[in-house]
Amino acid sequence: MAHTDKNTEPENTTHLVWREISRRSRDMEKFDVIVIGAGIMGSCTAYKVAKRGHTVLLLEQYDFLHHCGSSHGQSRTIRLTYPEECYVGMAVESSRLWDEAEEEVGYRVVTKTAQFDFGMADNRSLQLSIDNCLANSIPVRVVGKSDVGKEFSGVFTLPEGWIGGVTERGGVINPTKAVAMFQSLASRHGAVLKDRVKVTDITKVDGGVVRVSTVSGLTFHGKKCVVTAGAWTNKLMESITSSPCIFLPIEPLHTEVCYWKIKPPYTNLFTPESGFPTFASYGNPYIYGTPSIEYPGLVKISLNSGELCDPERRSWQVDMELLEKKVKPWIKTVFPNYIDIDAGPVITYTCMYSMTPDADYVIDYVGGDEFGEDLVVVGGFSGHGFKMGPLVGSIVAGMVLDDHTGNDVDLSHFRISRFMDDPRGNLKDYEDFVSLQKQ
Ligand SMILES: Cc1cc2nc3c(=O)[nH]c(=O)nc-3n(C[C@H](O)[C@H](O)[C@H](O)COP(=O)(O)OP(=O)(O)OC[C@H]3O[C@@H](n4cnc5c(N)ncnc54)[C@H](O)[C@@H]3O)c2cc1C
């Protein structure tokens, strides 16, 4: 006779039979689409598939809204400024989809404000970002050392030789709230969501059905499957036993997010209500930040870099020496006297980027004899994917539902095959990506 634990009654045979039937029927669950990984990309994909009336299962290895991947925390920038034109149009369309989702759910996850990009006047990515605004009819004001004081209550100082571009189309997304929003919308449209379910294998069975196996022994079946596993993408792809392993050049980087104390008389100047922008400072160090929202009196100023890590063996440490060397001098230059840098970053947390060599995304069918177009891999968002979540969800829904509706994005930029043609991927003539920490 089996016992569930020492405090409960012994189970009778009927109970055991019921449990076995229930386990088998759960195992036999079949969906149009199975999505693996419930960060922003998986949650948006599940929402878009469910909204279009198809059955979808979203599986997550940890608790929903956990803090171990890339989609947690309180702020992500949404902006239209990109050195590459393809992302400009995508950001415009994704912004529209953020508005649409907020309207459907009935609350806000995005705080709109301006976006300020700045750096040395000859910085190639900055120049291209400004050019792309002009080419796409996005109003941009170009400012320099002498006139930056007219913007943002005069809190920014630009060194000699620096310029900046101001657009009105920036904003801050609350990521944890946003992921929760898409999960709840997905659920409203009938998606099945399961957390603490780690997928260990994906294979093809029974004349073409995709079978997803989990560490606890459960299996699920789907017509199509989508891997949105963030920094774990290669770990999951490598665990596929039936096909030759596909290795994608997606590297997990451990990074840190820092909040700094604004000196008390100036706290109001750093809020979105006062017009303080989301910003990016190009060059080395590449620094980015968001207005004071989540912690009153604090502003987020972080380094866009990271160090290689294993997502399951992270140090979780913050490199204070690096912040001392790279971020403090930058703050002294750009916000002189406004920030209490001696207090150090008063709040820090860690996160992971999934970097590709060209900092472009991977959105593609896995291909090959076994999976063909039945398995899609979506990853390598290289520190700039969050804003695109709703659009990526829509693109991927179109890919797995075989109609490619809902977007007209040219996906050739995001193909896996670009790394076969050249391991560096898409060629770029600028270098302002997330950098390796020691550089
Ligand atoms: C510090 C930082 C700042 C950023 N700033 C910005 C910004 O300002 N603007 C912007 O647009 N983007 C930004 N990004 C990038 C953006 O956050 C990421 O591109 C995005 O969150 C990636 O989402 P994802 O769903 O691909 O990955 P994740 O959020 O990591 O989701 C993957 C999920 O898959 C799950 N999973 C993995 N393996 C398995 C398995 N075997 N079984 C089940 N589940 C599994 C994981 O647990 C995880 O929950 C930033 C990223 C970081 C780290």
UniProtKB/TrEMBL annotation:
Leader sequence residues: none
GO molecular function: flavin adenine dinucleotide binding; sarcosine oxidase activity
Domain of life: Eukaryota
Chain coiled-coil ranges: none
Needed co-factor(s): FAD
Keyword terms: FAD, Flavoprotein, Oxidoreductase
Domain FAD dependent oxidoreductase span(s) in chain numbering: 32-397
InterPro entries for this protein: FAD-dep_OxRdtase, FAD/NAD-bd_sf, MTOX
Entry protein name: Putative sarcosine oxidase
Origin species: Zostera marina (Eelgrass)
Lineage, top ranks: Eukaryota, Viridiplantae, Streptophyta, Embryophyta, Tracheophyta
